[in-house]
Design goal:
Strand order of the largest sheet of chain A: 3-2-1-4-5-6-11
CATH topology of the largest domain in chain A: Rossmann fold
CATH class of the largest domain in chain A: Alpha Beta
EC number (chains A, B, C, D): 5.5.1.4
Shape of chain A: globular
Radius of gyration of chain A: 21 Å
Oligomer: homotetramer
Structural class of chain A: alpha/beta
Largest interface: A-B, 61 and 61 residues
Helix content of chain A: 25-40%
Keywords (chains A, B, C, D): Isomerase
Distance between the termini of chain A: 34 Å
InterPro entries (chains A, B, C, D): Myo-inos-1-P_Synthase, Myo-inos-1-P_Synthase_GAPDH, NAD(P)-bd_dom_sf
Bound molecules: nicotinamide-adenine-dinucleotide, sodium ion
Order of helices and strands of chain A: EHHEHHHEHHEHHEHEHEHHEEEHEH
Protein name (chains A, B, C, D): Inositol-3-phosphate synthase
Number of domains of chain A: 2
CATH superfamily of the largest domain in chain A: NAD(P)-binding Rossmann-like Domain
Family (chains A, B, C, D): Belongs to the myo-inositol 1-phosphate synthase family.
């Protein structure tokens, strides 16, 4: 049996997460690079054994080909070197070791589309004019790039992963709730409530390519596009990768609830120095992220304590996210207590392996004929589509059950 | 139908946890004291609903009578006032509000027994001679006190809770593994490997009174006594209440495992100023606690990172435990990261509601005819008897399933 | 020789700091209350000895009488009890112990004036109309109250301390720089750039009563009023008491400078739950505080790192200020490092003793015939008037030299 | 005028601090390497200006030649590369950039002597026999190496810096207090209370070469050797470089004292993963360091709070020292408060520039004809010889006054 050949299409292909995905995949293909598997859930003992897919036989890392869309100039190699210099966000020497591979990927990167992306993202590509094409024409242009990638590389499956800068939020009440209502709005830029991330999402959906939205941008997280995905038979996973502070919240808040301790206030400050942080300095774009981070507390606790989440761009920290959280709670008889934590994580190194895991997992959904939001993947996201619980422990058990084939996952 | 009358017998009846149990129970019986239910798992929405017992109908807090054993002089009211003064370990005014109730309990407190309890515990009662009675005679003396408590208060059920100071550890290889081997050793002080906590445990077991061991002392945590409990039909729950740093470990370590992040080192320092801390200043007694705290990390992660746990008596902190944990871990491609947390909790206020919850829950086991270690109660303990998992999330789901009657819990 | 009788007039006389001053002064007069002297610099060994005034002989705490202005309803006893309940901001029992004394002070509290105080302060006294009097009339009204206090209590000296809620900032360019320019503007409300704090300040200055401005409000911190103070012979000390995070900055930033370590970024988050915090929730009022906290970093380091200061009202924390600071710096060869600290202080208990110290110290200035800004008192303030250095160590040496009489302090 | 040529002799020449000194000095000689001057006090604006030496004219970094003693095998280049790999303790690429320079220094490194150095240090050079020479013979051997270094490199001045692993402590009561008593003990190994660090110190003293003892080992920190240094005209600076947690203590403890806040307890935990940490894992060697770190608290505060200092070797942290300090203190009326800090510093990068500063500064002492302990250098040490104050701010002012020539410094 010949192993399948798979493609992973990265939207935001020269960003920090994308560059780490690229270097990491190259490193995984190298013999004996044990450190590369750290952080990969599909490589961990918890998803291994007779009940689970033998990924390394059926979907080895070497069977994946990368390509993508990007709006910025520059090369992937430059992006990787920048991560090395940023306080060791990539271990020293890896960028150069895989320079040839990175160059090859670079040649498969196509110009991305900007559409209602907001001024912060426009500022990444100064001077570059916004296209005057209709949203529908942009979708078609993206689809053409996706199909060309599949064909020229003779791929059996292609996964699309949105890793581009966070867009401003899209108010729920501007979004039609059915595909029939949304569809005609794509014909005129002025009438279209979607932004670029949703155009990428729609292109993937209509091409039948499973979609991962790792960003807080809307992507396919709305009823009309979920409906479209079910109709096209395309599985969806989103949105906003759960890598740091929110991951901690999703294990700590359930702990308070299960001990019946009363959370009075939860304050979280996030310092961040990379390009993602710079885009998030824009209040509009930041709103998307904060909404995504803040909402789940009340869902996890069953009531809403006073809460505060900030994201602050601190240039000198580079790719190192520092989060400080202060939780004030009461115990028996109302006695006040506190928990504080400081998380010092490297954002790209936390995100990239999850993107690779998701690529593997969503092809499983495709092979099982599941479509629309795959709620078994909720453990990976801050604002999971179709999730049944926000408790990370519960989400993880759901993931295991689904991967082992015990349960189906698509929502309908 | 007349509601049952229940007794809770506290070993270490004038300690910090016991005094908080006493004040808290009095407060719970008062109308409108909402703060009193904070921290009670059996009062939380997670254990409420049609599938769960209607505790407040069938086992209202007012149906419980307290008594206990204690080796120190003093009164329960003094112990409660001490907690108030210790930086607010009890809210101001509660001790005096319930002075009459506390006095009544005091009159039901009987002299405790010391047996191989170690020099730190002996130092709590200077000048008081150790009894020369045989271990078996001490067990009989305890049983007589327990039965007198049941009869003179006309109680339907009595639960025994060990809340006394931590004893030195008992090496596993000094303990016979069957009751037939252990039994004859009780006839001579010199040959008996057990300490006082296990004599209390045995007395409860042979009296058919469900036993809670909230301390790191051995109690009934050995094969011979578990066998005896099964034979006598007595349910067991132990050992070492999981209230602070270890509770956090039991949610955070699984998080690292489920993200495949590699923990390199986990250092935990615990500062503590109360009488418990003073006893734990003795290296022997501290050993019991540290073993209990440290062991579970390897079980939770699947491998043993470098680890360190300290407990340090810092007088000025009173009942306020401060724990600082530093976790050094690696992500994708080996990138090093850290998580630190500081936990500032009031130990007695964290422990007391769990003791009350356990009292309710273990009577449920008795009513269902379960005996020996009740593994569904693992979520409450650092070193749970008969537990199936050390992951707090998993333990809690097990608890819910058992309480709702879906599953039985006793090990055999 | 008969000891002098002194008055301390508190503007904001039922606030948290004022109530702590009142209870503390009562407690200091009690025999054997050693805890009361903690935090008093004038009682410390560093300001004791043959070179220093014998305060307790010449200016014993019992020689001070309190009075003040307040705009809110309520009593001082209520204010003190509120502090007790707020997580122990006052030790339990003190409010009631000194109830009679507090009542007596209450009878000496006069209605305060509001003038351009901002909406957040207006909200403290809902429904109460703003006076239509001219600024000059308000100053005269305040002076009348001050003089009545001095006369009816037969005081030898009166110190005025501004402890009222933080006002919005007053832009420097709206302030005339000489008294001759400022003076005529007091005749019409519309033309007057000053706010209430400066009217209080002017009243004290013109009454020859030494002034302490413990708040970030303008008070006498402008050239025109300093000129007026010199002319009237009144000593000034201000502004904004240095009690917590900023105190730490003023010892830590010099440490970085003296080790030639390069601070890249300094982020400080302050959580605060009392009435002061509530007023500071108003962006206008908060601006005054943040400006005061942030400016000194660049002065201390000699360059401006990226910096961020926030103040966030978190109701459940009561009078407990929690500050988290994250300092990112570089060492030799550019190696990046971090320092983080968490400060958990009780704001009123930190502030009140400094107010008492300042009262003692500024009478010394008066007795020595010094007038205008007393720069030797810089160690007490975030934005010191006339200071020579922002380094707390240097400021403290200056204080010692001045108190011991080695140096004069007034600026001109 | 021809600039002087200077030598810096490193004892422990392939250790982490020494390797960073070597790389840093090479980097400083390179044009345009601005990052290299970070952390150098003699390059900071605080020691610059008309009153201060023009170091870069009179004692440029390029005028220094390195050599040293070492007991371990290996090369300096390997040591430097190890630092690079250890989480970026040296910026990437520096070791290789200066490979030729490092090789040249390596050729000037001579075999060190071990004498009563303790088992942990012996374990660094497994299999290597301890010399049977008398202490005096070892001193002569060291002197011969020092003089050969001076002559073969035609050096005008040579400074000796002890940077070797921490030895076990030497009890004060085993040390004679005069040179006449100590001198004869050097003739027999069995009678000699000194360890290797003191033999190095004596050799430097008798060779008239200024001595820096950056370690907690005894070196010249005893009356007899200080007397000898005065007799030989040799300036001394020691002991134990103040780089991290203790530096913070020396600014924070004075802050508490100057605010009259009462420190109840001060707990400090130090995690450390490098070779220094491994040697400090030995309880004997650790004792030296802890004594040095702990003693100064009582001196700074004027009373001894409960205190605790630990040093724990955590391998995965490499050269990254993490210190967590928890200070529990009381304010006005006894209200309890806390300060916590976490310091994450790279030990070698903190130490190396201070060694270079000290080399410059101690030659100044020599040129001014000062001998014995130079107390103006106290700011650099945890246990300064002849210091007048432990307050870092005061020490720094003393340093400035001395460097600018206003004051002499030698003790007698
Ligand atoms: N790293 C994490 O831990 C993490 C976690 C959750 C979510 N995310 C999200 O992942 C995304 C990527 O993060 P990052 O750190 O790589 O950011 P980044 O800024 O380094 O990369 C984003 C890239 O997207 C490109 N881009 C922007 N708009 C585009 C468009 N319309 N089409 C194509 N390319 C476009 C940018 O030019 C940039 O190169 C962000 O939205 C971030 O919020 C990251
Ligand atoms: N509070 C927590 O968060 C927590 C968590 C887990 C375990 N524990 C354990 O619970 C126990 C009680 O803690 P505490 O804070 O109340 O301690 P404590 O020291 O305040 O109380 C213990 C009491 O037990 C009494 N005692 C000692 N030996 C006895 C004996 N042989 N018979 C009868 N009485 C005896 C002592 O006199 C004392 O009054 C300790 O073992 C502690 O380690 C507490
Ligand atoms: N506590 C600290 O550590 C600290 C440090 C520095 C500065 N300060 C400043 O001290 C001031 C007092 O702090 P607090 O915690 O007592 O605040 P608070 O809010 O408890 O008290 C302020 C009082 O001032 C009164 N007030 C407001 N406007 C007034 C006016 N125009 N005339 C008379 N009274 C008026 C209010 O009604 C209130 O009772 C604030 O400005 C605060 O920023 C406090
Ligand atoms: N780095 C800091 O922040 C700091 C601060 C204060 C003190 N110190 C002290 O500085 C010293 C050096 O620290 P490091 O991190 O470089 O340690 P290190 O272990 O990396 O280096 C010490 C070197 O000394 C060598 N050595 C041991 N005994 C010797 C002897 N008798 N003769 C010659 N060489 C010998 C060892 O082989 C080793 O190479 C230690 O004593 C440490 O405690 C360091
Ligand atoms: Na990133
Ligand atoms: Na206050």
């Amino acid at each position: 049996m010949v192993a399948k050949k798979r493609g992973l299409w990265l939207v935001g292909a020269r960003g920090g997460v994308a560059a780490t995905v690229a270097v990491g995949l190259a490193e995984l293909a190298r013999a004996g690079s044990e450190a590369a598997t750290v952080g990969l859930v599909t490589e961990s003992p918890l998803l291994a054994g007779p009940d689970f897919p033998s990924w390394n036989q059926e979907a080895p890392w070497s069977s994946w080909v990368l390509g993508g869309h990007e709006v910025r100039a520059g090369t992937l190699l430059e992006a990787a070197r920048e991560l090395e210099r940023q306080n060791g966000a990539l271990p020293v020497g890896l960028a150069d070791r895989h320079a040839t591979t990175l160059d090859a990927i670079d040649r498969r990167i196509r110009p991305g589309v900007r559409f209602r992306s907001g001024t912060a993202i426009d500022a990444l590509t100064p001077g570059s004019p916004t296209s005057s094409a209709t949203p529908r024409a942009l979708v078609e242009q993206i689809k053409a790039d996706l199909i060309a990638f599949r064909e020229s590389n003779q791929l059996d499956q292609v996964v699309v992963a949105i890793l581009s800068s966070t867009e401003p939020p899209t108010p729920a009440d501007t979004l039609p709730t059915t595909w029939d209502q949304l569809n005609p709005l794509l014909d005129r830029a002025e009438s279209c409530p979607l932004r670029a991330s949703s155009l990428y999402a729609l292109a993937a959906i209509e091409s039948g390519m499973p979609l991962i939205n790792f960003t807080p941008s809307l992507g396919a997280s709305c009823a009309a596009l979920e409906e479209r995905a079910v109709a096209c038979g395309t599985p969806l996973a989103g949105r906003d990768g759960k890598t740091g502070e929110t991951l901690l919240k999703s294990v700590l808040a359930p702990m308070f609830a299960k001990r019946a301790l009363r959370v009075e206030s939860w304050v979280g400050h996030n310092l961040l120095g990379n390009r993602d942080g710079a885009v998030l300095a824009d209040p509009d774009n930041k709103r998307s992220k904060i909404d995504s981070k803040d909402a789940l507390l009340a869902r996890l606790l069953g009531y809403a304590p006073q809460s505060l989440v900030s994201i602050e761009p601190i240039a000198s920290l580079g790719d190192w996210k520092t989060a400080w959280d202060h939780v004030h709670f009461r115990g028996f008889l109302g006695v006040p207590m506190t928990l504080q934590f400081t998380w010092q994580g490297c954002d790209s190194a936390l995100a990239a392996p999850l993107v690779l895991d998701l690529a593997r997992l969503i092809t499983l959904a495709e092979e099982r004929g599941e479509a629309g939001p795959i709620n078994a993947l909720a453990a990976f996201f801050k604002s999971p589509q179709g999730a049944v619980s926000d408790d990370f422990g519960v989400q993880f058990e759901r993931l295991r059950a689904w991967v082992s084939g015990l349960e189906r996952s698509s929502v309908p």
